[in-house]
Amino acid sequence: MTIQMIFKIAAVGILVSVLNQVLKHSGREDQAYLTSLAGLLLVLFWIIPYVAELFETIQKLFQL
User: Fold this and answer.
1) How far apart are CA 36 and CA 15, in angstroms?
2) Are residues 22 and 35 in contact, defined by beta-carbon separation less than 8 angstroms?
3) Of the candidates 39, 41, 45, which has an alpha carbon nearest to the alpha carbon of residue 19?
4) Measured distance CA(22)–CA(36) in Å, rounded
5) CB 10 within 8 A of CB 1
6) Largest Cα–Cα distance in the chain?
7) Number of Cβ within a 10 Å radius of residue 32
């Protein structure tokens, strides 16, 4: 995982939290919830290949 990926995740977190607060204060709780869910799914799709690679590495390590 590169430092760029960490910065991307942090940027999405900051953006989602700001949008969440703005939407909640304007009375749009449903859209705030969907925004949080979309941010979470986006980050998960970025992270899934790294998790799969980690599991493959662990599996190779224990097959020695």
Assistant:
1) 10
2) no
3) 39
4) 12
5) no
6) 58
7) 19
